[in-house]
Amino acid sequence: MPPLRLTILATVAFLVILAYFYMPISTPGLEPTYPGITHIVLFQWKDSATESAIADATAHMLSLKEKCIHPVRQTPYIRSMTGGRDNSPEGLQNGATHAFVAVFDSPWERDYYVKDDPAHDAFKKSVGDLIEKAIVMDFTPGDFHPPS
């Protein structure tokens, strides 16, 4: 094989191998299936909290899905946020009347939200005088192993 053809063949092979390593894989169905971190918050309001103040606080909490911005990507990072008023007939609420559920893609994002996010910090300050008690629980769906 002439040297020029060999050089061209080697260059093409090199480019194909290079493209293989740098091409993003985005095949549908092959995305990671990590279930995320589910963050649950239950609120018991102080007797002095008005319905109007509670409505404002719940709207503020739900708005965190858009207001909490990832510090690197500069985009919202809460996968989902929902909530509502208790309607359980069991009577086991221990005073809590409102529940919120947020889902994060990673433990790092949940930790940032809980410890460092300025929008979340502002929310906590804004409702501090309204809340009698808050109960918070986080879990990874399907993981029942003790923490390591």
TrEMBL record:
<keyword id="KW-0812">Transmembrane</keyword>
<dbReference type="InterPro" id="IPR011008">
    <property type="entry name" value="Dimeric_a/b-barrel"/>
</dbReference>
<dbReference type="InterPro" id="IPR044662">
    <property type="entry name" value="HS1/DABB1-like"/>
</dbReference>
<feature type="domain" description="Stress-response A/B barrel">
    <location>
        <begin position="37"/>
        <end position="139"/>
    </location>
</feature>
<dbReference type="Pfam" id="PF07876">
    <property type="entry name" value="Dabb"/>
</dbReference>
<keyword id="KW-0472">Membrane</keyword>
<dbReference type="InterPro" id="IPR013097">
    <property type="entry name" value="Dabb"/>
</dbReference>
<comment type="subunit">
    <text>Homodimer.</text>
</comment>
<feature type="transmembrane region" description="Helical">
    <location>
        <begin position="6"/>
        <end position="23"/>
    </location>
</feature>
<protein>
    <recommendedName>
        <fullName>Stress-response A/B barrel domain-containing protein</fullName>
    </recommendedName>
</protein>
<keyword id="KW-1133">Transmembrane helix</keyword>
